[in-house]
Amino acid sequence: MPTLSLSEEYSHVVKDLSELETKLRIKYFPSLVERAPPLEADDIHIQNGATKTFTCCEEAKEKDITGSTTAAASATTSATTVTTTAPVSRESEMNKNVLAIVSKCEDGSFKASLRKRNLRTFRLTMIPSSLESFSNLISLDVSHNELMDIPGLSSMCNLQTLNLERGWFNTLPLEIGSCTNLITINASRNFLRPNNSSLLFDKLKSLKHLRNLDLTYNQKCGTITHCQHIQQHIPQLSNNVQVTLWENIGKNPGSYIGSSAAERDSTLLRSQLEPWSTVSLRKRLVQDFGQEPTDASLVDRAQVMSMLLHCYYKEGLMSFPETLPHSSSPPSAAALISPNNTNYDILNHGKDARPRIYVNGTSVDPTLIDKILIELRLWTKETMNNNKNKCYKNRERPSIDARNYMILRAPNNSEKKKDNSSSSRRAIRQAKKFQKYQKIWDLALQALKETDSEFATRCTEIAVTYGFQGSPHIDKQNCGPFYGFALGNFRNGTGGVCVECSTRVVAVVNTKNRIGRIDGRYPHWVDQYGNNERDPSSQHEHIDNTGNINDDAAEDTDDNTTTKASPERYSLIYYETGRNFVMPGPAIFSIPERKQML
After folding, report:
1. What pLDDT score was predicted for residue 238?
2. Closest among 171, 169, 232, 234 to 198, alpha carbons compared
3. Which pLDDT value is given to residue 158?
4. Distance between CA 236 and CA 205 in Å, rounded?
């Protein structure tokens, strides 16, 4: 029996969240009972018969790209369509009769396209039998789908052009080495990394005719160093590797606020939307707010964000303080409702006012909580004692606002090497750290087993944090949902994990002394708790050498009182990285217990 996807397994949650979002959407857009189709500017041009397209150059104005713009070589000239496709459904991946659009070229070769077919799996039977042989195929376009591999690709031995744009590939197709005549690979907008396990260097190096590799808008392939590293391993590409230089994005005024999640105020709607790609923001304007598709060559990220924030404001889902920073008067109504407003500073200060829903995690045994807290307090005390300034600053993930952030990785014997390579030295450091803090790992895993014993066997990393604040972000390395577990004396009902469930709905998962499941591949952050400005040493002045807190710094005796010391919040974040990628489903995994509606 095939494994259910997250959306299928938690269909009741998907349905509940969808109904809630629809109820909010039709208040302002009665005609949008269903979300609008995700049309883009190139779709409009294609429908109008225009020759200009934006498929491969979208966002070119707002993001610098390095690499050659050499056109793909082609052995063909004009083409005539010989096969048409059946109507596309939203669940076309389940339709065994879906067929590619196939074009025959003058020399007798063929081109096949499955662009925008909502595919999650690929089958050779999707290509019509009129080809006679897959070896006659010189071009395959599977862009704008949710594919992760192309089984059967090895049968297309004469393929020259492969378009994987906007897919779910975290590794190139495993059979790509058999396509010995490949000239051009467009792998733009995927989840690829500049390493052998993702880009299959050895297989690409064997493709002697390969001349163009487009890796633009892959989040982890975004520096000149990455580009040079790829060219070193695939020498025949010379200067024909294209990547997006992410460091240059922020140079356009209004494109981003803050250089990382740690620098963003999580109460601001702009901060909560920031983790989304520009493409996702464009689609949101069209699908959820009924706007016309925007042309990326004319409308950059800053303008898209401005339009989106205006839409939220008009629905009452964003509010403004009476006075803005560096201003003695409230923002003018004209400045807020003008769709062409370019005063990004005003829009950046809009507070999120979207409805919230509330979910409780699974309770953890109090005795086990006490044992874990002892180890965590000793960890932070040690960190302070080893720091010259006697303050907590041990952030292995500096993009997150936290006093301490440590990642423990599950032992992996395959990583142990006898050579003196940097990877082996890193593995040795990780092993020493794991050995030092193995008690934290063992206790943390014991708590997880009580909630999900199966995931406990697959967990590859545990992030151990102290003082995690805000930091709206998306976890791009995770191959599935994560579990969060918060401990400490911070006030009950605060410090939960917020996650965007849909365009207009945010869920708050209560993880205090509980373990909650969240899909971190959606924007999420830690809700406010206590004073944001904390004295890092005040809490731990009351910690003795056993990790216990003295009586005068005990937890709240009443939920409406404040602790004598600054709030203490630890968290354990369990996640899995690697090849076991699971398609995202809902952002949360249980029906909300409480819904705060406008």
Report:
1. 82
2. 171
3. 95
4. 7
SS3 content of the chain, % helix, strand, coil (to 5): 30, 15, 50
Query: How many residues in total does the chain contain?
Result: 598
**Secondary structure (DSSP) of 553-588:** G-S-SSTTS--SSPP--EEEEEE--SS-------SB
pLDDT of residue 346: 79
Tell the burial category of 135 from Cβ atoms under 10 Å away from its Cβ (0-12, 13-18, 19+): middle
Q: Which residues pair with 465 in a beta bridge?
A: 405, 571
- Alpha-carbon distance of 458 to 582, in angstroms, equals 13
Q: Which residues pair with 404 in a beta bridge?
A: 394, 466
Backbone φ and ψ for 401, nearest 5 degrees, come out as: -80, 100
As a whole number of angstroms, the distance between CA 75 and CA 26 comes to 51
* Cα separations in angstroms, 76 against 81, 138, 164, 524: 14, 9, 21, 48
Cβ 210 vs Cβ 185: under 8 Å: yes
Task: Say if CB 281 and CB 273 are below 8 A apart.
Answer: yes
- Tokens encoding 463: 């992030």
Tokens 């500073």: give the residue.
345
pLDDT at 58: 35
CA distance 171 to 153: 14
pLDDT score recorded for residue 566 = 73
Contacts of 208 (CB under 8 A, 6+ apart): 180, 236
Q: Which residue has the tokens 């930091």?
A: 471
Query: d(Cα 146, Cα 92) in Å, to the nearest integer?
Result: 12
Question: Left (φ > 0), alpha (ψ -120 to 50) or beta: where does 326 sit?
Answer: left
3-state SS of 327-384 is CCCCCCHHHHHCCCCCCHHHHHCCEECCCEEEEECEECCHHHHHHHHHHHHHHHHHHH
Distance between CA atoms of residues 223 and 509, nearest Å: 36
Burial class (CB in 10 A: 0-12, 13-18, 19+), 175: middle
**Largest pairwise CA distance in the chain:** 86
Distance in angstroms (rounded) separating the CA atoms of residues 168 and 38: 17
- Supply the pLDDT for residue 283: 94
**Residue 422 one-letter amino acid:** S
Q: Across the 598 residues of the chain, what is the mean pLDDT of every consecutive 10-residue run?
A: 86 96 95 88 55 32 40 33 35 57 90 92 88 89 95 95 95 96 95 95 96 92 92 90 79 83 96 94 96 88 92 92 60 53 71 96 97 96 64 77 94 52 76 94 97 96 96 95 97 96 97 98 95 38 38 37 68 92 95 67
Separation of alpha carbons 504 and 20, rounded Å: 9
Nearest to 76 by CA among 110, 119, 126: 110
| 140: enclosing H helix or E strand | strand 137-141
Instruction: Work out the number of other CB atoms within 10 angstroms of the CB of residue 557.
Output: 8
